[in-house]
């Protein structure tokens, strides 16, 4: 490990461990208050997972009504509410635009930078932090506390009056979020086991369907599991199903599989067309057409959609129009397993808020937690990054309050 030059004789007001969005936002919050702050990141560069998120366009946040927005955080909605109110989607948009990265609202209501990637924003952000006097160190790994309460970083002791821990969760370990901190903090906080979130699910496809349609999209479908529902796109994978609409229901599906060994996902292939309208169209004469060709012409079902119906309902689809319309509106797909955590976009689990004093460790009250170390989960759509930024601001403010 590299040495940490010029730090052994300094005491920072705040040290931030972790250089992702939560940690960098905590550092900016502290620096803007005029306090000295250093950020230590064990990877060779900052924001590696943030840059990975930018490959898909960098969905920063969402423009929907705030009450609906907060509800996306499920069981942790009320816990996160004050933090999301203090640094709301509008604040994140203003922050990005102040860094020279104008944003736009996509057709789905998601908010993106016009550059559609993370690197320009991250470069401008790091330059701002340096301008605020923030000390930035990479290849600097935190391994706990020294006997006299200092921070052990690369085997050396670094002094700080308060600490923000923003070490990430347990998805994308190769980018730094490897949950290596869990054994260190387990004696100090109740840590919910990490589980896959925003993940794909296994389906026992027939060999013919898997080989022909893996990689094919299901566009603008409606998915339902119990009382939960989602609209959007899904993707047929060789192992099963994935995609944004599936991720929106991932928590419900995962919990059902863990409890019962399976989950039934109901797919409406034509959510914008009432069953009565479908039935009326299916009354048209088939003539000598195959069923697949008839469904393509009558209700514009693609080959992957026709064959998904056969996977769900059996090879012999009903000929009677009402029954066939009902089959199109409700195709049951049995999910048998959750894809592994290291393939998930994000993770559920982490330090439970109930075992913390606000965001602080009770055993080390000068240390506050932020980002995906905390026990919350949310679907894709801007909710993940928004909560990381918002908890980073909250952690920075909590650190300032403890100085």
Care to give the gist of this entry?
The chain has 15 helices and 19 strands. The chain is an alpha+beta fold.
Secondary structure tally, helices: 15
Uncertain residue segments: none
Seen as an oligomer or otherwise, the chain set is: single chain
Task: Give the termini distance in whole angstroms.
Answer: 30 Å
What's the gyration radius in Å? 24 Å
Structural class: alpha+beta
How would you characterize the largest beta sheet?
Answer: 7 strands, mixed
Give the helix/strand layout:
Elements: E1 11-17, H1 21-32, E2 37-40, H2 48-53, E3 61-62, H3 66-71, H4 77-86, H5 89-98, E4 103-105, E5 110-113, H6 119-131, E6 135-137, E7 142-145, E8 151-153, E9 156-165, H7 182-185, E10 191-197, E11 201-202, H8 207-213, E12 217-225, E13 228-236, E14 240-242, H9 244-248, H10 250-260, E15 263-268, H11 275-282, H12 291-299, H13 303-313, H14 321-329, E16 331-335, E17 337-338, E18 346-351, E19 367-369, H15 383-401
Parallel strand pairs: 1-2, 1-9, 2-6, 9-19
Antiparallel strand pairs: 3-5, 4-5, 7-8, 8-9, 10-18, 11-14, 11-17, 12-13, 12-15, 13-14, 15-16
What does this structure look like?
This protein has 403 residues and is of the alpha+beta class. 35% of the residues lie in helices and 23% in strands. The chain has 15 helices and 19 strands. The protein has helices at residues 21-32, 48-53, 66-71, 77-86, 89-98, 119-131, 182-185, 207-213, 244-248, 250-260, 275-282, 291-299, 303-313, 321-329, 383-401, and strands spanning 11-17, 37-40, 61-62, 103-105, 110-113, 135-137, 142-145, 151-153, 156-165, 191-197, 201-202, 217-225, 228-236, 240-242, 263-268, 331-335, 337-338, 346-351, 367-369. The strands form 4 sheets. Strands 1, 2, 6, 7, 8, 9 and 19 form a 7-stranded mixed sheet that branches. Strand 13 and strand 14 (240-242) form a beta hairpin. Helix 1 packs parallel to helix 15 (383-401) and helix 11 packs across helix 14 (321-329).
